[in-house]
Write a structure and sequence with these properties.
elongated, 168 residues
Length: 168
Amino acid sequence: LTARLASASSLYGVAVTLSDIFTAPVLHELAAKAALAAQQTRDAQAIPVRRGGDTVPLFFVPTGTGDYSHVFALERCMPGSRPIYALPWKPMNELPHRSIEAMAARMSMMIKAAQPDGPVHLAGYSGGGILAYAVAAQLLGEGRLVISVNLLDTGLGEANDVAPEEID
């Protein structure tokens, strides 16, 4: 059984261990456990919105509510063959991040997994613009080239008293 599950894991991306079989011995419980694990793995990865292309990829940071559905509509309006990714928030069953830096670190990790090296473009809509800026700062601090940070309908929030030259 474990050998067959291991081969299914490579085909379908579902991983089930021997321990899982004993903790969820009823088939529908085991399937639910495997589906949850697969969902959590997907939630920790950049979501390809447009695959392929030979230009610098664009990564969309989610809004303040975790929404990235707008990326699919925007992609249809963007000419060219640029790879485009949406970055998801943590799954609802995980504890939230305690700081914008922790959220930026998670987004940064997903970017590096999808694009291990080379430059990137970032975009953030609404509250996601502030997070995109934090992600850019983190990537730049690691020596990564961030060509642009595109802010769509993003306000400065409490930073309204910051002089524009300080935002560069």
